[in-house]
Design brief:
With 579 residues, this protein is mainly β. It contains no helices and 38 strands. The chain has a 38-stranded antiparallel beta sheet that branches. It starts with 12 loop residues before the first strand and ends with a strand.
Length: 579
């Protein structure tokens, strides 16, 4: 058979330098390849061509290569060089590659240098008929910020198995976004590329640790200011954060659409749960629309079906350069009975919330206004503002009226306090589940919590709370730990019951400056009477002094008396008596 050849055996052509404006090559399968701005030098012989410093432009792709061709069946070649792809308005791609083989099987290896780093090894097969290819890539430092997208994922690395034929290609493997600190994701992609458009038949991403999964399809356009997206998909078993035992947000399932140029239009519909805020509550249906940018999300409308009512909200979440968020809107028909079955009702109110950061303890501001409706058959009204930062809560104009129950709260509570309160409750169960009775109290607490300045007046009747019952309560407290004013405490309790024990009456008084107080206790229980007097000082919540007198009397000639004063120490944690 006739052996393939480039030139007659007697002919050799040396090309010192040549420039060609354009050239068209049609390979046997009909594919047309056009090149422009072709230049280089070469030596052509009978069965070999060696080319040096060859360059050509194919659309937005520039090749600079050197290598050789050998006339055989199939054609053999060896080449190495650089490829630069500069799509308009997009990051520049740069890679180096080398290949050695033939048109039936051409092994190739390369390195992507920009816009990320990756090593690629594979084979191009059957190039003259039905060409296809496969390979493996080790990805390093893939960062979406190169496309002006979010940097929250950080540098992405991993390994991918690649395949393609004609315009179609696929990828499968694992990737690790360092910024999420959540471990590896299993990823799959199948689609094709043609004329600056990636058509994604399937994008499948699964977080290996949690099982959270999203599946999408659509198009990705390589355009100035892009990429331009038109994607639709679903998710299931989503949680945030993706790792750890504390999971403040879950979504069992939902779907989404993402379209346009940055900032992208998006819409989502799904089921969401916030266990810390709504423990035991079934998933809430949410319908959210807005825009997604590189540094945050702008929510134009979020409609939530919750507590047998609805909430229409809007807001913004920003993660760069600083983490901030705010949400505001109005809720209507909210039934607290979904959280506490003993509090059925229907409430309407306006809500505004804002925060800096997404971790527990990060600053939080909440404002509720225009509270109205009914709760357990009585009218409800009120509003107020509170903030939380670290260990400190601040309350401003918090006012709640529930029928004949009223609550007012202002001030600050943390390591130190500056708090003013007033409560009038005809039914304590409105304020705390399981509680019963009536209470009227007002006062103020200020200073460090381990030695607070306290002024309180309280009156109560028929009180039940946490297994303790009380028929009556009268208390007046004016306590100054600094001794700048005289401390005065007077408390009278009637029919106190706890742990199957009963006290008919209990009177307790404290009088004098904190540095030299006198405390008296009188208690009557079935068959018993207790009286005691102590003197000493109170500092940082600890009483230290002398038990001056103690008498205990009861039926059947029970008579106990303290013969002489003894040392006495009393704190919230422990008490001790010592001679």
């Amino acid at each position: 058979p006739h052996a393939p050849q480039f030139l007659p055996q007697w002919l050799t052509i040396h090309i010192g330098h040549a420039d060609i404006g354009s050239a068209l090559v049609v390979i046997p399968n009909g594919t047309r390849i056009t090149g422009t701005q072709i230049s280089g030098s070469a030596v052509l012989r009978h069965r070999d061509i060696r080319f040096y410093h060859a360059q050509l432009q194919m659309g937005e792709v520039h090749f600079a290569v050197a290598g050789s061709l050998h006339a055989s069946e199939p054609l053999r070649l060896a080449a190495s060089g650089q490829v630069t792809w500069q799509p308009h308005g997009q990051p520049v791609w740069r890679l180096t590659a080398s290949a050695a083989g033939d048109l039936d099987r051409l092994p190739i290896s390369g390195k992507i240098l920009a816009p990320f780093q990756s090593e690629v090894r594979g084979e191009m097969l059957d190039l003259t008929r039905h060409w296809h290819w496969h390979g493996n890539a080790e990805v390093e430092d893939f960062d979406l910020r190169a496309w002006h997208l979010t940097g929250a994922l950080g540098a992405i690395g991993g390994k991918l198995a690649l395949r393609g034929e004609g315009r179609g290609f696929s990828a499968r493997g694992t990737l690790v976004p360092a910024g999420l600190k959540a471990g590896a994701f299993a990823v799959q992609f199948a689609g094709e590329y043609s004329r600056q458009l990636i058509t994604a038949r399937r994008i499948d991403i699964t977080h290996i640790g949690s099982g959270a999964r999203t599946i999408a399809s659509g198009t990705i356009g390589i355009v100035p200011g892009g990429p331009r997206l038109d994607l639709r998909g679903t998710w299931r078993s989503f949680r945030w954060p993706l790792v750890g035992r504390n999971v403040p947000f879950r979504s069992t399932a939902g779907d989404f659409e993402l379209s346009g140029l940055r900032p992208y239009d998006f819409s989502t519909r799904g089921l969401a749960q916030v266990p810390e805020l709504m423990p035991g509550l079934a998933a809430v249906r949410a319908d959210v629309t807005g825009k997604l940018g590189a540094d945050g999300v702008d929510v134009s409308r979020a409609r939530l079906d919750l507590f047998r009512g609805h909430a229409d909200l809007h807001g913004k979440v920003t993660w760069a350069p600083a983490q901030r968020w705010d949400v505001s809107g109005r809720a209507s028909g909210i039934d607290p009975g979904r959280l506490r079955p003993d509090l059925p009702g229907s409430l309407d109110f306006a809500l505004a919330m804002a925060g800096r950061g997404f971790k527990a303890g990060d600053p939080l501001d909440v404002s509720v206004t225009g509270l109205s409706g009914r709760l357990r058959g009585v009218a409800a009204s009120g509003g107020g503002e509170f903030t939380h930062a670290g260990q400190t809560w601040t309350f401003q104009q918090v006012r709640v009226d529930l029928g004949r129950t009223r609550l007012a709260l202002d001030g600050r509570l943390g390591r130190t306090a500056d708090l003013r309160f007033a409560v009038t409750a005809e039914d304590l169960s409105l304020l705390s589940a399981g509680a019963r009775g009536r209470l009227q109290a007002d006062g103020a607490i200020s200073g460090p919590l381990d030695a607070p300045d306290i002024r309180v007046n309280a009156h109560g009747a028929d009180i039940l709370y946490d297994g303790v019952s009380l028929a009556g309560l009268e208390a007046k407290v004016d306590f100054d730990p600094s001794s700048r004013r005289r401390t005065s405490v007077a408390a009278h309790l009637r029919q106190l019951r706890f742990h199957r024990r009963a006290v008919h009456s209990l009177d307790f008084t404290v009088d004098g400056p904190a540095s030299a107080v006198i405390a008296r206790l009188n208690a009557q229980a079935p068959g018993l009477h207790l009286a005691a007097t102590a003197s000493g000082s109170i500092s940082r919540g600890i009483f230290g002094g002398k038990l001056q007198s103690l008498s205990l009397s009861g039926a059947e000639s029970l008579r106990l008396n303290l013969q002489q004063p003894v040392s006495l120490t009393v704190s919230r944690a422990a008490s001790s008596i010592d001679q």
